[in-house]
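Hey, I was hoping to borrow your eyes for a little while. I've dropped the whole record in just underneath, so have a look:

——
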Amino acid sequence: MKIPAKLNAMVGDVIRKKWNKKGQSAVIYFHRVLTAPNPYFPDDPTVEELDLLLTILGECFRFASLQEIATRRCVTNNEKPMLGISFDDGYEDNYTHALPVLEKHGVKATFFVSSAGTREGILWQDKIIQCVEKVDGNPAYLNIGGDNYSGLSNLDIASNLMRSMKRQKVAEREQTLDAWVCDIDLKGFDRIMMTEKQIKTLADKGHHIGGHTHNHAILSAESIRFAKSEITENKEFLERVIQRPINLFCYPNGHPQLDINLDVHPQMLKEAGYIAAFTTLDGGIGMGDDPMLLPRFLPYRKNPYLRAWSAGKIAGENVW
């Protein structure tokens, strides 16, 4: 797709002058980068879509590290607003598919990694998908029969299970998954997460690695003691892998009213050595935002121009 330069310039000018007069920064995130659309990951771009999106966004924003954004926050004198790119969980296609596109555009991204996925090759939500695909539309084999799952597609079964199990305690969820593996005689899960070597290579190339808990645990669902262990085990694991400190974190799921105890978890992160943490609230990053509750959003629009426009508009909005 050929990109009209005049249209890019117009989009960038509107973003700066109409929607984001304060020069607020924005951080967007993805999970996977695919070779072809995947119904299990409808919001994630293909390689071609990411390439085009970064081309357009580069006309509207200046790509910046999340460290710079967390520190500087806003730009002045009609500069392009800053935009940070991030990826969650640690999927292997972040390395195999996203990295070449990032390098083409000269973008340094932040990868928020849940270390259990690195260690096991898979996280809980993808275990659900692989279990459902194994039984192929027969949820009774997973001991989850009933009207809620009768006649549903594999996609709908997996989506419903992920929603219902998302805020379970890690131990309870893992017990259920272990039982499924035994019941359906699943010999093992396919690896879909980055290896330690790939994470280390990203860091060596100048990208940043951030914390995302060990088990992709929603902190508000766990005890204070377990939440602390999720944060510290994750941080220690990743620092051992990349052989340098990490200081950025993003909350799994990331909604402050549902997933974060605002009186406990931000302070817990500070004590662990983090200087900034990101939620999943739509909005730009302004001067007055709490560094442990910075907004970060997912650009849902599939059309790259609409994604760029929506990112620019959201960047000018305030969260709190």
